[in-house]
Amino acid sequence: MTDLQNLKPKDHAEEVAIFRSQIIGALTRRELDHGELATTLKELAANRYRLPGADSTRTFSVPTLERWYYAYKGGQLEALRPEPRSDSGRAQELTAEQRTLLCDIRREHPSASVPLILRTLTLDGRLSKDAVSASTVRRLFADEGLDRIPMRDGKGPKTRMRWQAERPGALWQGDVCYGPGILMGGRNMPVRIHGLLDDASRYVIALEAHHTEREVDMLGMFVRSLRRHGPPDTLYLDNGATYSGNILSTACARMGISLLHPRPYDPQARGKMERFWRTLREGCLDFLGQVSSLHDINVRLWAFLDEHYHKAPHASLLGRSPARVYETAERPTDRFDERKLREALTVRVRRRVRRDTTLPLEGVDWELDQGFLAGRLVMVARCLVDMNEAPWVEHEGKALPLHPVDPAKNAHRKRPNRGGGHATTASRPVPFDPPSVLLDRAVGRNPSQQGGDR
C-alpha cells in the first residue's frame, strides 16, 4: 500500500485530536444517568495513556477530560485539536530590538551557527549571559524563515524553483570539472575538463581537457564556440577566479552578451551543469584507463558526447535528445562576424617605447621599425582570438607591427632611419644666434638693419 493509499492524520494536531476522541468519544454517544458522567470520568482519570509520539505514559485530570467531553459533543473532532501557543517560536524573553538584531545577523552571516552568534553577542555585551537558549533562537529563526536549510540551500528565505532558459542559444553555462591525473614524462599532471552547456537543450557546446583552469583556457574554448554556434544571449559562469577576471567581462560586454555569476557557495543554482558532470564521470571519466596525453582524453570525451550523450533521451526534455532539441530549435539571425569577434577581444595598453625602439609586453621585448616613436608613449594592442598573433602599435589610425627583439640579428642589420616624416635636421637653415641678439640689444642696434637673416 502506497502512502497515498494509506489514510493517516494530516498533521500532529489531528493525531492528538483522534487520541482524545478515543478516550472520551464513546461517552458522548451514551445515555448517562445522573452522576454517571462524573463517575466515569474519575475512572478514566485513573488510567494511564501514551500520547502520540511520546515515550512514556501519563494521566489526565477529571477537569481536562470533562473539557474534552463537552468540546467533542459540540464540535466533533475539530474541537479536540490542540490550539497552538500564541507566542510559539517568538522568543518572548528577548526584546524586539534583540530579536531584530539576531535576525539581521543571520541574514548577513548565514553560515554563522546559533552558538557562535550567542557567544559573540554575549562577549561584546549586547546580550546578557544565558538570556536566551540556543533552541529558542533556532525557533525564532525558523519562524522568520531564516533556519539553516533555506539559508544554506536557497541563500535566503526565498523558495528555490526549477528553471531553464526560454530557448536553445539563450543561455550557456560554463564550468570546470577535475578529472583523473595522467602520467607524463614521469610527472603526474592534473586534468581539468572545461565545458559549456546550452541550458534549454542540455546540449554540450564545447568540452575540452586542459592541464590548467586559467581564464585564457575558457576564453579560447569560448571563442571556438562562438565561431561555430554564434553568441548566446547570456553566459552563466562560476564565481571562481577562472571566470571572474576582466577579460571575459569586457569581451562579453563588447559582444552584447550578459555575463552572470551565481551567489557564492550555491552549487544548487547550477544544477544542470553539476548533473552533466555526474553523467560524464559515470559514463566516461571513471573509465579512462591508461591515457598518456590530453589528446587521448579529448577524443574520448568527444566520442562520449557524439555517440551517447547527445543522442540519448533526456528526462528533463520529455524524452527527447539534447541534439534533437538544439538542432531543431529556431534561433534569431546571427549578425556576429569575425570582425566583431576580433574587436571584442582586442586588448589595449599604454607602453613607453625605449630609446632603442623596443618595449616590454607580458615578459617579452618587442621591437618597432618606426624609430621616430622612440621615447614616446604609445598604445599597444593585442587580439586574444589567437594568442600566437603578434601585438601591434596603434598610431594616428595606423597599425604598426611589432616583432620580437633579436639582438644577434640586429648586430648585423643596417640601422634604419627614424623616418615617419620626423626628420632629425631642418630642410633649410633657420636663423638662430642668441649672442648676436644680445649684442644688438646692448648697442641699441636694430637687427633688421644688419642684413636680414643671420
Please give a structural write-up.
The chain has 454 residues and is α+β, with helices and mostly antiparallel strands. The protein has four domains: 3-79, no CATH class; 96-153; 185-328, Nucleotidyltransferase, domain 5; 345-454, no CATH class. 37% of the residues lie in helices and 16% in strands. A five-stranded mixed β-sheet has the order 3-2-1-4-5, sandwiched between helices. The protein is elongated, with a radius of gyration of 40 Å. The N and C termini lie far apart (119 Å).
Outline type: elongated
* Elements, N to C (H/E): HHHHHHHEEEHEHEHHHHEEEEEEEHH
CATH superfamily of the largest domain: Ribonuclease H-like superfamily/Ribonuclease H
Distance between the termini: 119 Å
What proportion strand? 15-25%
Structural domain count: 4
Structural class: alpha+beta
Question: What is the makeup of the main sheet?
Answer: 5 strands, mixed
Helix content: 25-40%
At the third CATH level, what is the topology name of the largest domain? Nucleotidyltransferase, domain 5
Stretches with pLDDT under 50, minimum 5 residues: none
Question: Which sequence of strands runs across the widest sheet?
Answer: 3-2-1-4-5
Number of β-strand runs? 12
CATH class category label of the largest domain:
Alpha Beta
